[in-house]
Amino acid sequence: MSAVVTVPEGTDHPYALSHLDSLESEAVHIFREVAGEFERPVILFSGGKDSILMLHLALKAFAPAPVPFSLLHVDTGHNFPEVLEYRDRTVAEHGLRLHVASVQEYIDAGKLRERPDGTRNPLQTVPLTEAIQHHRFDAVFGGGRRDEEKARAKERVFSLRDEFSQWDPRRQRPELWQLYNGRHAPGEHVRVFPLSNWTELDVWQYIAREGVELPGIYFAHEREVFARNGMWLTAGDWGGPRDHERTEVRQVRYRTVGDMSCTGAVDSDATTLDAVITEIAASRLTERGATRADDKMSEAAMEDRKREGYF
Amino acid sequence: MTVTEQLSATTLLRFATAGSVDDGKSTLVGRLLHDSKSVLTDQLEAVEHASRNRGQEAPDLALLTDGLRAEREQGITIDVAYRYFATPRRRFILADTPGHVQYTRNMVTGASTAELAVVLVDARNGVVEQTRRHAAVAALLRVPHVVLAVNKMDLVDYAEPVFAKTAEEFTAYAASLGVPEITAIPISALAGDNVVEPSAHMDWYGGPTVLEHLETVPVSHDLTECPARFPVQYVIRPQTAEHPDYRGYAGQIASGVLRVGEQVTVLPSGRTSTIAGIDALGESVDIAWAPQSVTLRLTDDLDISRGDLIAPGADAPAVTQDVEATVCHVADRPLTVGQRVLLKHTTRTVKAIVKDIPSRLTLDDLSQHPAPGQLVANDIGRVVIRTAEPLALDAYAASRRTGSFLLIDPADGTTLAAGMAGASFAAVTGQDADGAALDDAEWDF
After folding, report:
1. Which of B9, B79, B218 sits opposite A18 (nearest CB)?
2. Its GO biological process terms (chain A) (predicted)?
3. Which chain A residue has its CA at the smallest distance from B409's CA?
4. What local confidence, expressed as pLDDT, does residue B108 receive?
5. How far apart are CA B79 and CA B342, in angstroms?
6. What's the average model confidence in pLDDT over B47-51?
7. Is residue A290 domain-resident?
């Protein structure tokens, strides 16, 4: 781990902060605001890089005390085994408490129906909402970033949700200075996005600087994949490949980690953090554009899902 | 240097843009993003596709930020949109505020965290009412750096006198409101003159392009030159076998510099102690500065909790229950005299009552309207507030972070108004903005 404060080059001022230090300080401030004002906060933890980064920042924010939040994972049933293994190891290592809301259980119980395309991302909203209600979570940390997608760009750091977790973008509270308003009625909760101002590149640079460990699928590896909708998908029980789809072994890595049915891999030979950062800095596609089928559905796909209570 | 180190050696600038669609704001923002190669292929394809569907020939770059269905349907920007881009020298967070709907509220929101504001004018029109409004909001919110971008220079034959007249008029007006630093740049956002690349048409201009200026303007330094302020967010007490006696006060330094060994006062109690240690997110340090998030340890075991303020013993703010301030009203329901509210200041939320609304301000000409009785959405006015508990409040002129507050409806948590303690404008009568200006004589409209 490098020094906490790096004075950036080219600035002769003794009290300059690098952009990573600025973003880190802002995120830590947000975590501490929530700890100070809410009764039952929870971190949404998928084992993806953004949630791993959130946990890392939370650990730093409260050290040497433990993180005063539990974790919630909405398990689609189509998760990468490497990611689940990482999740469980991390929970054990830091002595955290993990809640799991299972999409598979909802399907088995007949409360949710599998979609014809096999995509389970949109199915996460109900288990997520019900878990929040069941555990009476009042603040729910999400790893969403404003640079990811244009509906997310309109999201507040503190985003009020009603008892159905609905987001109403036209009735958001204006957010001024660093004064976050987390007041809410019983049954309502606040989604909190500490990484709002981070970009994909910031996330990777910070992970590299801090030496944060990630699941191996973020780095180039050999994998049996097949092409669908212009993306490389991993073969698996979730329903791929279909008869006419042919698998092949390619060197790939993942830029995002989600449901296996709609998260694509990209061709890559980036096996180290530095190589990944070089690759992203040169990429001409956003991570969602490159790897998420669900966001290609329509111009307002993310807005619609967010309105319904999605992450 | 590795790629990681290279990319990490940059600072962060938060800035806001103001101007209407007609001034070419979307074109300027689009060009900054496009020419700094921050618009990626799939985003551009989506914009081109959507523009074609609307029958537009050229890609409408406003669609990059208009993220909501209602915005795309109506062709307007409803809300502040945040955009992110980077050059090798700096990372930028741009708060792009719409020109018409809820104009004041949105620009105040965008300007509240901005270290720089870009005000656009059309070279053909010069300084108009709206320009004065933009200057007033930037001055009111104490944005340290203002850029006047005189756009559409191509439509006035790149003529220096046109630029000089507008720049002079604007600079005089903004300076009279106390804006400390104003930079005027002649540009053509459409043709690309002086946005990213220097113009080939304006030899008479020797200053920086917009992007050069954004890359080099000093940031955050203003914060560290002010007296130190440390609002306590959370008390860290592990009570574990490893750390049985650790007691740290977590917070983000709002302004100034803190050093180990320094004498401090804790407000509102007024008790004093000495900084025994500073933990800067995992590393013990001797010195820390705004806006770092740190944990302080003190030599004495005091009763300190969330909402308290730690400040240098020699330079602590006064504690008061009577607040005079300028507010921007941001809610749809009005704010009235006699109303009971919650006041959120730094990490402290207290009950309060609106004792008086002495005046309302029209931003166009800075005229004042005495005793309006209430403020409605997008109004700016003076208020007198009494709080149930004492606050360690600075003048907003001295510290944007510890001089600002929210008024909140206790019934449903709605944010009603954004407040700035003390005088509204810094230098109408030529005084400097050293923050000593809490008294009404200076500028109390």
Report:
1. B9
2. sulfate assimilation
3. A183
4. 92
5. 25
6. 76
7. no
A284 touches chain B (CB under 8 A): yes
Nearest-by-Cβ selection for B93 from A197, A284, A299: A197
CA distance A294 to A301: 7
Closest CA to B32 of B68, B65, B77: B65
What letters, b where the CB count within 10 A reaches 16 and e where it falls short, cover A184-194? beeebbbbbbb
**Single pTM value for the model:** 0.91
Residue A7, pLDDT > 70, answer no
pLDDT at B440: 36
Alpha helices in B113-262 (DSSP H): 129-140, 160-176, 210-216, 221-225
Instruction: Write out pLDDT tens, residues A181-231.
Output: 999 999 999 999 999 999 988 999 999 999 999 999 999 999 989 988 778
Instruction: Say yes or no: A108 and A194 in one domain.
Output: yes
Helix, coil or strand: residue B31: helix
Residue corresponding to tokens 């189509």 = A78
Dihedral of the alpha carbons of B202, B206, B211, B215, in degrees to the nearest 10: 180
CA-closest candidate to residue B230, choices B422, B420, B401, B436: B401
Question: What's the gap in Å between the CA of A128 and the closest CA on chain B?
Answer: 23
**pLDDT value of position A270:** 93
Best mutation target among A183, A279, A287, A291 (most B Cβ atoms within 10 Å) is: A183
Contact B86 A274 (CB under 8 A): no
The string of pLDDT tens digits covering residues B197-236 is: 999 999 999 999 999 999 999 876 677 788 999 999 999 9
Q: Are residues A271 and A182 in the same domain?
A: no
The total domain count for chain A is 2
Task: Judge whether A19 is closer than 8 Å to chain B, CB to CB.
Answer: yes
Across the interface, which of A1, A4, A274 has its CB nearest the CB of B3? A274
Residue type, B117: A
A189 and A231 in a single domain? The answer is no
Q: Determine the structural domain holding residue A240 and report its residue range.
A: 216-282
Sorted by sequence, the CB contacts under 8 Å of residue A230 that are 6+ apart come out as: none
Let me know the angle formed at the C-alpha of B220 by B214 and B222, rounded to the nearest 5 degrees: 110
